[in-house]
Amino acid sequence: MPSEAEKLAENTEPERMTNLFVVTGPSGVGKGTIIAKILERVPHIAKSVSATTRPMREGERRDVDYFFCTSDEFFKMKLRGEFLEWAKFTEHYYGTPKSWVEKSLSEGQDVILEIEVEGAKQIRQKYPQAVLIFISPPSYDELKSRLQSRATESPERILSRLEKAKEELNAKNLFDYEVINDNLDEAIGNLEHIVYAERARTTR
């Protein structure tokens, strides 16, 4: 059995400061791939699950990949103040449930959000200690090539995403860090270093 001194040490040991990491970047830049690798390599970090009004895609799991809801359900949640941030992307709405994030942070887990620039701005206002990270392509032309090579969307949708990307790239100076995804392994390593560096901070 632990001694009284050991019990006291356990009770007085400071809790680990948790972090909210917000990762943003234009469509096609590789955010999802980079984050997936971080979740594999870094312990005690979870990806936030967003609510969305868009239809479920093949292979996605309800309440795991997204909380799928109707537009009416989404706006009722918004009116009740249940979102940490929300944004409209193309014709659908996305929002981060505040309760999910707060519960994970209180349990000692860092949380990583993959959201749009407008959502990141909202997070900065409501949660100023959040760490904002922008994933950039090596160039606009490279991003255009990546989106066109997907061959999963219409030319009109690709054009819409590229126009949105121009706006997003102009906002990257609002972020704490920029990670350029030219070489995927290097980009993953750079984001991993950011996570560990923020964990080592003594103040927020």
What do these coordinates show?
This protein starts with a helix and ends in a 5-residue tail after the last helix. Strands 2-7-1-8-9 form a five-stranded parallel beta sheet, with helices on both faces. The chain has a four-stranded mixed beta sheet with strand order 4-3-6-5. α2 (31-41) packs across α8 and α6 runs antiparallel to α7. The model is unreliable at 7-14 (pLDDT under 50). The chain has helices at 4-12, 31-41, 71-79, 98-106, 117-126, 140-150, 155-169, 184-199; strands at 20-24, 45-47, 50-52, 66-68, 83-89, 92-97, 110-114, 131-136, 177-180. Helix content is 44%, strand content 21%. The chain has a domain at 4-48 and 109-199: Rossmann fold, CATH 3.40.50. With 204 residues, the chain is an alpha/beta fold. β5 and β6 (92-97) form a beta hairpin.
Can you give keywords for this protein?
8 helices; alpha/beta; four-stranded mixed β-sheet; five-stranded parallel β-sheet; Rossmann fold; 204 residues; 21% strand; single chain
Topology readout:
Elements: H1 4-12, E1 20-24, H2 31-41, E2 45-47, E3 50-52, E4 66-68, H3 71-79, E5 83-89, E6 92-97, H4 98-106, E7 110-114, H5 117-126, E8 131-136, H6 140-150, H7 155-169, E9 177-180, H8 184-199
Parallel strand pairs: 1-7, 1-8, 2-7, 3-4, 8-9
Antiparallel strand pairs: 3-6, 5-6
Give the total of beta strands: 9
- Tell me the CATH topology of the domain at 4-48 and 109-199: Rossmann fold
Q: Which strand order does the major sheet show?
A: 2-7-1-8-9
The CATH superfamily of the domain at 4-48 and 109-199 is known as P-loop containing nucleotide triphosphate hydrolases
Name the structural class.
alpha/beta
CATH C-level class of the domain at 4-48 and 109-199: Alpha Beta
Distance from first to last alpha carbon: 37 Å
Question: What is the tally of helical segments?
Answer: 8
- Tertiary shape: globular
Q: Please give the largest β-sheet.
A: 5 strands, parallel
Helicity, as a percent range = 40-55%
Low-confidence stretches: 7-14
Rg calculated over all Cα atoms: 19 Å
The SSE order reads HEHEEEHEEHEHEHHEH
Percent range for β-strand residues = 15-25%
Second rung of CATH, namely the architecture of the domain at 4-48 and 109-199: 3-Layer(aba) Sandwich
Mean pLDDT: 88
